[in-house]
Amino acid sequence: TCPSLSDSRCSSMDQKTPENSSRASSPSCSDYENFPMVPTLETSYLARAGKNEFLNLVPDIEEMRPGSVVSKKGFLSFMEPRSNSWVKHFVVVRRPYVFIYNSDKDPVERGVLNLSTAQVEYSEDQQAMLKTPNTFAVCTKHRGILLQANNEKDMNDWLYAFNPLLAGTIRSKLARRRSGLMKN
Question: The pTM is what?
Fold first, then answer.
C-alpha cells in the first residue's frame, strides 16, 4: 500500500525504521517544508503538484505483457469521428492487446487497445442502421471505435481474434438461422 501524503501521516513517515527504509517510500514531510504555499485558484492543478499542495492521485499499475502468439493481422477500416470517413490501418491482435499501425511497414505503434478492459460489440441492427456491412465496434472507457472488415468471413475472423466468445455466439446464431431456413 502507498503511504498517504496528507499531513496527518507525515509524522509516521519521518521515522526511519529498518522496515520503512527497506521499502521504497515517498520523501518525508521535512523535505517539503521549504516550499512556499501557493494560492489554490491562481495556479493550475498540475502546477500545484510540485508545491505543498499534493495531487491526491495514486497510480494503479498492472504490468500486462502481450502474448507472443499473433491471433490475426491485416487491414481494418476505422471510422474517423471528425470526418465520418473510413481510414485503413494495419492491425495486429496479440491478446490481450490490439496494436494499430498506419501500414504493414510502419515500425511505430500508432494505437493500442486493451481487450481485457474493452467491450467488443456486433449487431446486425447496427449494420442496417449504418447501412454499412461487415462492421463491429470496440468500446473502451474513453471512446467507441467503429471498425469495418473487407467481407463477412474476414469480419468473423476479426471478431474471433478480438473476442472468441462473441464470435462463437454469432456463428451459432447464424447456423441456427440457416438450418431453420433450410427446413422451410
Answer: 0.60
